[in-house]
Amino acid sequence: MNVLYGLLSPTAGEILVDGKPVAFGGPGDAVAAGIGMVHQHFMLVPVFTVADNVMLGFEHVRGGTFLDHAAAREEVRRLSARFGFDVDPDALVEDIPVGVQQRVEIIKALARDAQVVILDEPTAVLTPQETDELMGIMRELKSAGTSIVFITHKLREVRAVADRITVIRRGKVVGTALPTASETELASLMVGRAVQLTVDKADTEPGAAALAVSGLRVVDDVGHVRVDDVSFDVRRGEIVAVAGVQGNGQTELVEALLGLQDGIATGSATLSGSELIGMPTKEILELGVGYVPEDRSHDGLIDSFTVAENLVLDQHDKAPFAAGIRMSPSRVRARAAELVEEFDVRTQGVGAPAGSLSGGNQQKLVVARELSRPLTLFVAAQPTRGVDVGSVEFLHNRIVAERDRGTAVLLVSTELDEVSALADRTAVMYRGRVVGIVGGDTPRDVLGLMMAGIPLDEAAEAAAHARPGGPAAEASPVADTPSGGAA
Amino acid sequence: MSAPTVDAPAPPPAPQEPAPPPGGGALRDTIVLTLLSVLLALVVGAVLIAIASPDVQNSAGYFFSRPQDMLGDAWTAIADAYKALVQGALFDWTADSARGALRPLSESLVFAVPLISAGLAVALAFKAGLFNIGAEGQIILGAIGAAYVGFSWSLPWGGHTLVALAAGLLGGAIWGGIPGLLKARTGAHEVITTIMLNYIARYLLAFLLTTSAFHRPGRSDPISPAVDSTAELPRLFGSSFRIHAGLVVVLLAAWGVWWLLERSTIGFRFRAVGANPSAARTAGISVARSTFGVMAIAGSLAGLAGAFQILGTEKSLTGGVSAGIGFDAITVALLGRGSPLGTVLAGLLFGALRAGGVTMQARTGTPIDIVLVVQSLIVLFIAAPPLVRSIFRIRAAGVETMQVSKGWNA
Amino acid sequence: MSATITPSAAPLAPPDREAVLQVRPPSWRTPIILGVLGLLALVAFGFGAKSGTKSTFGLSRGSDAIRIDPVALPTRTTAIVLSVLALALAGQAAWYVSRRRPVPAWLSGVFAAVWLLAFLVWAIEGKSISFVGLLAGSLALAVPLIFGSLSGVLCERSGVINIAIEGELLAGAFLAAVVASLSGNLWLGLLAAPIAGLLVALLLALFALRYVVDQIIVGVVLNVLVIGVTGFLYGRILVQQQDTWNSPGTFQPIKIPLLGDIPLIGPVLFNQTVIVYLMYVVVAVVQVALFRTRWGLRVRAVGEHPAAADTVGIKVNRIRFQNVLLGGLVAGLGGAFFTIGNVGAFAREMTAGQGFIALAAMIFGRWTPLGALFAALLFGFANNLQSILGIVGTPIPSEFMLMAPYLATIFAVAGLVGRVRAPAADGQPYVKS
Fold this sequence. Notes:
The structure holds three protein chains of three kinds.
Chain A: E1 15-17, E2 20-22, H1 27-32, E3 35-38, H2 50-55, E4 61-62, E5 66-67, H3 69-82, H4 98-111, E6 116-120, H5 128-143, E7 147-151, H6 155-161, E8 165-169, E9 172-177, H7 183-191, E10 209-219, E11 225-235, E12 239-243, H8 250-257, E13 264-271, E14 274-275, H9 281-286, E15 289-292, H10 296-300, H11 307-311, E16 322-323, E17 326-327, H12 329-342, H13 359-371, E18 377-381, H14 389-404, E19 408-413, H15 416-422, E20 425-430, E21 433-439, H16 444-451, H17 456-466
Parallel strand pairs in A: 3-6, 6-7, 12-19, 12-20, 15-18, 18-19
Antiparallel strand pairs in A: 1-2, 4-5, 8-9, 10-11, 10-13, 13-14, 16-17, 20-21
Helix pairs in contact in A: 13-14, 16-17
Chain B: H1 24-52, H2 54-60, H3 67-89, H4 98-127, H5 135-152, H6 159-186, H7 190-208, H8 246-263, H9 265-275, H10 277-282, H11 287-314, H12 325-335, H13 340-364, H14 369-383, H15 385-392
Helix pairs in contact in B: 1-3, 1-14, 1-15, 2-3, 3-13, 4-8, 4-11, 4-12, 4-13, 5-6, 5-7, 5-11, 5-12, 6-7, 6-11, 8-9, 8-13, 9-11, 12-13, 12-14, 13-14
Chain C: H1 17-21, H2 29-46, E1 54-58, E2 71-74, H3 75-98, H4 105-123, E3 128-130, H5 131-157, H6 165-183, H7 186-210, H8 215-238, H9 242-245, E4 254-255, H10 265-269, E5 271-272, H11 274-292, H12 294-304, H13 306-311, H14 316-343, H15 354-364, H16 369-392, H17 398-413
Parallel strand pairs in C: 1-3
Antiparallel strand pairs in C: 1-2, 4-5
Helix pairs in contact in C: 2-3, 2-4, 3-4, 5-6, 5-11, 5-14, 5-15, 5-16, 6-7, 6-8, 6-14, 6-15, 7-8, 7-14, 11-12, 11-14, 12-14, 15-16, 15-17, 16-17
């Protein structure tokens, strides 16, 4: 897609717009050819106003060079009104919610008379409800004559809105389909083999509560409440999933449990009786907490360190790797060799820099490190994001195995499939609050509605109505931990 | 784009590919590149020397009638200058005695000792992802501490030197610790704070030299009393060579920095924080403590350089005690690529250039500033391998960029 | 999920937007610090002064068209009044914070001016100084700082850290002196200065942008290089042949008719050399261009979010290259002030760290031209004050006053007096993935 938008140059082949071949030297050419793009990571300058962002690169000017803010505001208002957007042209982008920022991106494309709008994974940051609204906007654009390229890995969304579907795998077109194709057909096209997303998981009897969170609240650096009065517990031998659309407080919740939050955390979170809030990260880890962070390359690994050094990142000052302040490189290497073997990490050697490993192997490296010591609580945030299918199965099996050893597992995931496959119970978060805590067998459409902030009973009812001739809701609310945040 | 599959399109041959594991090829490449950079810098220096030579300017006046005159003059100017440089830096074959012939080597080492120590201060901070531009100020504080203990306390032989050295370490540690603390506590960028602290140190020194505690009685210029002979660093090879025991101390310090970085848990944390602070923090390493610790240790190394100046060569404190060593230290650390061994070698090279520059100025009238030119050019060339490669038409085989800092907001 | 579900379910009312987006109130730190400083002024300068003494300010010079008699103020009373005024300003800052509004920048500026006046009144107790001379001298000392900090603003707004301001100033000073001496024409010297700055900037741009070398490293090393080259040529040529190479002379002040006759302001602002007038123009142009023009919008976008600028067709590295060169021109011009604007001859390392104070002024002025202007004026004032007080005799060692700009900058970056925020992409090379 970056080629289509002129950010990268193609090595071969050609692009046709309205039947005419075009060559893009840069995004400017693509825009001139009528192509607009809404990037997955918004391309907006946070400290600029909406109007400034919309006109950047295509400025309204008076006297040859002076900015005409009035004209820019007017244009934003006009486009905003036409699609019912309600965007204030004078607001700073950093002050407006993510959903509105996305609309600014769309206005940006429309202001340049885009005939083709590319939407790159636009729903990753949206609630199901906002996603529906976006689809409405897409249909409206379509009826106004705009072509839309909608990139997503969510099959339901494709089928709901697309007229034609093209499936790409490893940079190649592997097939085309119509929206009438079933999800399984599309899924097997996408991964190239039949997909098996369930995990063999025996029922176990969870033990006593290991982690008990109550009234947890996190306020970030700029004063936004990120986690609002959250309470739940995780028992030994149990996997509790925290589900929700990205950006609803899951990241901050986990960071607060690990003592890593940037803002201020209040409330309580105890692990086997020890209060975690206010405790330094090092001591929390020493209580037997393992943590696979959401963004492994940023938080989990040091690219320039060797595989061996990465495997002792949190243990480097403990026996047998160190005595006093003296480290033993040979013991570090020996331990690393064992773990690489056990977790099947594909590497040139324990002396190779971690940055040279593939994404899946980097993730195995992090998981290997965290599972290499006895744990009371294992926190895994988006453990399979960006990981190849083979590694996903391996990682899922390790997580279940850890549960079966009696560890309490807290899984944070935005993927409903992963949640359904692994969770014994699921806490759904929306705007920093826990909407409800439900059993692992709760249907995914109910979970989806809860992710939009709809409380369990209403969600179950709505889902039941929606299912043609469906039975009554089969969700089994787990009542022992009432959620503090649900309205 | 984010297609459902994992693989991104193959990136263009970007300069930031991960370095191959350190092997013979990369190391050889580094050495070749370094030597070529030194060569290039000396060539540019030669051009400057030729241009500025009065003889060359004369003969350039009739260049078109007798071009060989100008070329000859240029060659003479360059050869004389660089010959004097070598005589001043390594071995003076024109000297009357063996002692005289070897004295330049001693002088080079005298210049190299504080350069290495301050260079280690910058290099250690590099390894922890910090850019310590404050060696100059840390040297001054170290010199103040060492000088004060040296001239105002009375202690026995040996003990006095050790206590004075410790005072130097402490002074530097305080001046390095302040930016470390500010960075850890408030996020204030260490480049800005260390630059500012350099000037504050300079004025603090100027002020102290006006006070009765520091000013030498009976003198009108700002100078302190000389340190007691009990506090001096003993000379290594007798009184005719100025090289002092600081050489031994600084080599021990270099080994200590290597051990700290490569073999200790503290150094492991320093390096982890330097390479990826968020991953270090996630692994339970305190970024704030590391930042403060590394800056305090770095400061103490620079403070040691200040103590060497006082106890080894200068004997008394003046406003010019730091003599730009703190800024040269940055180039030393960069040339040494942040490694302790590299810093020692780079310090020896720049020390030799310094000592040779003094002789060159005395014998040929070539200002010693040419040393700064050569020094800075070496570092520029080393920092931009593609430039050197394109000049010498050799192919790439290793790391290509030199990035230490991450901008004011990092 | 299918789109038909949602309408049938009443969505949970979203949490009160105020609750989610409640913004943390501005910090109490600023009013507290201002209050403490105000009290300090009241105790030390106000009650610290003896009653009955006077502080005398000369308000005009002999050559001025309109003469004003010197004003003799009662030291104690004046200092107390000014201190109370400072405390009132601190109170107003507290009022802003209690209303959850940020303390405006002008308030801190006015506070600084009032506080300094109180200090001044106290410091010259029983003595007399020329106020016009003090201000004019401050401006003179600030001129190279202003040019230097504008160079920094131009570079850093586009995302390139400029530590080489010192080198650009020094190169400008050197070439201006040499060219003016050789040609016997000051104007040619003035033309040569920006070219020298440009050459240094070209190296900065080449290494930082083309070869992606760490920008701080390049800057530091370039400073050493310029000190080395100018020092070498100075020692080898300028010293030997002083008359031919290093006696450029200086620009004489040009009095602007009418404006120059305004009492107090006239002689300070409008009886200056052409370099100072150029400074007024450059500040105004950069300020307007940066915030009111298409060019400025693009520059700021490149400095804040280069990828976003790239996606709308803006050539990120080309803009950065241009801005680094522009910065070099401006700083080089400022360098001319050291030689042909003021002293008249080049000396080794004559910029003496002014480039770093310029950097500090840029930071203190929050990366805006006007802010940098006022910060540079403040630093120039502090510097001039210490030399004047050194002459009349003062209770405070001059070294501490010389430290003031550097201390102030440390306080600023440490967030003790309001947090400063650099352009988000400042110092980060932009390499397309």
